[in-house]
Amino acid sequence: MEFTISRDEFFKALQHAQGVVSSKGQMPILANALIETEGSGVTIFSTNLDIGLRGSHEAKVSSPGKVSVQAKKLHDIVRELPSEDILVKVDDDGRCRLTCGKSKFNLATINPDEFPAFPDYDQSRLIGLDAGMLAEMIKKTSFAISQDETRMTLNGALFEVSKTKVRMVATDGHRLAYVEREGAFGVSEDMKVIIARKAISELSRLIGEADGSLKFCLQDNHIIFVSDSMVLAIRLIEGAYPNYEQVIPKSFDREATIDTSEFVHSLRRVATLADEKSHMIRLSFSSDKLELISEGGEIGEAKDEMAVQFQGDDVTIGLNVEYVLDLLNILDDGNVVFKMQDQLSPVMAQPPDDAGLIFIIMPMRL
Amino acid sequence: MTKLSEIIGQAAALTVLKSALPPGKPVNSYLFVGPEGVGKRTAALAFANALFCQSSINNDACEANDACGICVPCVKMKGGSFPDFKFIKPTIHKNKTKEEINIEDIRELIASLAYKPYEAERKIVILDGVDQMNTQAANAFLKTLEEPPGDTILILIAANLNTQLPTIISRCQIIRFRPVPFGEMTRFLMEQRGMDENQARLASALSKGSPGMADMFKDDEKVRAEAIGMLESSLSASVGALYNIAHTLDKKANRKRADRLLPALQELIRDMLVVKLAGKYDNLINKDIAVDIEKAARNYSVRELFKSYDLADEMISARKWNINPLLVMSLLLMEMREK
């Protein structure tokens, strides 16, 4: 195997590859990247088994083949090389030799056949998806993904696709974020998969580099996302996602329309004296007025007040102020609508003009 | 990798395991129980391999009921790089002195099992040495053991059933492994390891029914020769040269050798004592080289030999505590030199 690749192209590729390798654990080969010639270029594949990334790159191939070398070392070497062409050659003795100008490197390799196979996917089954839309869906849900690694089904976001709709849902049991968007997705059957938190952030990176459009498909136990030059294979989480629709209330007795930015400022002020463990504050809604109260025990209390539009009987609800701030954080300026039933029922928050976006927060007992 | 069909002396266990291969259906959790060294780990690996093997999945007649050894999963299993297979054993954790499977190991396992299989139909995990799983870890493991996610198969390996939590035992199918019977072991050593009948019978008797231990006798002769060499050097070589011998044994690859040399040395010392005290060859362990032993024994007094014997004893137990071979061997060699 022998090819020549520009240093900058190689470096960019290895930066990506290096990001997903796994250096600890039982399989030393996972610390490696698999470089394979393909037509008039090379593909570089690295994986930690949960997330696999394969990029196609331009290169001058003089003899085809494949090799697996330690990704981090290769990355570190190429980083230090000048912007020239690099000659990569694998000899019969299995050593991988890099030559760039007068610099020469000789790297150990592991049998490339031992490298985990990249999940095979059928190109014809790929479905188009707007990258910007997916980015927005991730941004509006990922904050609510559970950090608790003992409940792995909640440790990811639910990704649901039907013929005309795509949904993303995340919850940690105390709050839930839900986005639904429309489009034409020619899926043969409804798709419902859980994508792990770590994979979600890798996906965001891929979107950041894709120009506008992205394709995806489901392949056995993986979901595959394809951009112009990269393919991301994400291993799905086992098990069923909780029935989130049950949590979303259908009817409400009370509704408040609140100015988002004013609400944020007021919440931040009151949050300073909220209980340090529970982060609880009280929100007292009455006609045209919202009172925000925090009781920090021995340290002191805080109280703030703002004007709101409110319909329904007066009500006081205890909420985790961090949760409220988290969701206001990702909303655009303007109004947010809080819909409530009573003191102990889930609170639903939505922008007034976007029915496809739903946030639920469970109230705390006062 | 050893195949199921190559495992000796475990007919009952193998019958159950083979019946679980396609078209049969394995259960979720197994507990392999039996004395150390009789083939539990080997069988667990072979069983996992056979379940992953393509030929077993396709149920080809040629290799039915065993791994083929040549398909992609078999090659990856052999290379230790099959993505849906995990092998967990007790390790020495930070700030701890003894080997253990602790809660961190179990948490990591649970997190990794949350993913669907990478390329196989199911994931398989072997937990070797569950005797050394602490209670906290065992309790954290119960839920996974009862309902392994997906079609995951868990194979637990333990030397002793009595030390296991009843909650663990009740969740597993128990597969018992027994010491390999004398006759079967002797036959195995003669047919597969090329020993002559006397050698095989002796090795079989000393192996306590463990094929692994019997295998070790095969190159015992080499170890003994090395031990004699060391004994000779301890008399004539310089302190520096002795240090160098000890130093090579300290290299990671040689540590196992050091652990076998020590008892061999001790046996030689013992034989020298016997020759000196009894003046007869009858009870020598290394009867075949009795003349050499008698010659060597002339260099030492009885008291010196007793001292060296005790020291060797001490050093053997020091190795059990993982004291480094450099220290252990150089101490012993210097002592023999100084007399």
Describe this structure as you would to a colleague:
The complex is a heterodimer of chains A (366) and B (339). Chain A is 19% helix and 42% strand. The longest helix of chain A has 14 residues. Chain A is elongated and about 80 Å long. Chain A contains six helices and 26 strands. A nine-stranded antiparallel sheet of chain A has the order 14-11-12-13-26-25-24-18-22. Chain A has an eight-stranded antiparallel sheet with strand order 6-2-3-4-17-16-15-10. In chain A, strands 5-1-7-8-9 form a five-stranded antiparallel sheet. Chain A has three domains: 113 residues, DNA Polymerase III, Chain A, domain 2 (Roll); 123 residues, DNA Polymerase III, Chain A, domain 2, CATH 3.10.150.10; 113 residues, DNA Polymerase III, Chain A, domain 2 (Roll). Chain A has 366 residues and is α+β, with helices and mostly antiparallel strands. The model of chain A has no long low-confidence stretch (mean pLDDT 92). By secondary structure, chain B is an alpha/beta fold. Chain B has three domains: 173 residues, Rossmann fold; 34 residues; 120 residues, Up-down Bundle (Zinc Finger, Delta Prime, domain 3), CATH 1.20.272. Chain B is built from 16 helices and seven strands. In chain B, the strands form two sheets. Chain B has a five-stranded parallel sheet with strand order 2-5-6-1-7, with helices on one face. A two-stranded antiparallel ribbon of chain B has the order 3-4. In chain B, helix 9 crosses helix 10, helix 13 packs antiparallel against helix 15 and helix 15 packs antiparallel against helix 16. The longest helix of chain B is centred in the C-terminal third of the chain and has 24 residues. The radius of gyration of chain B is 24 Å and the shape is elongated. Chain B starts with 10 loop residues before the first helix and ends with a helix. The chains are: A alpha+beta (366), B alpha/beta (339).
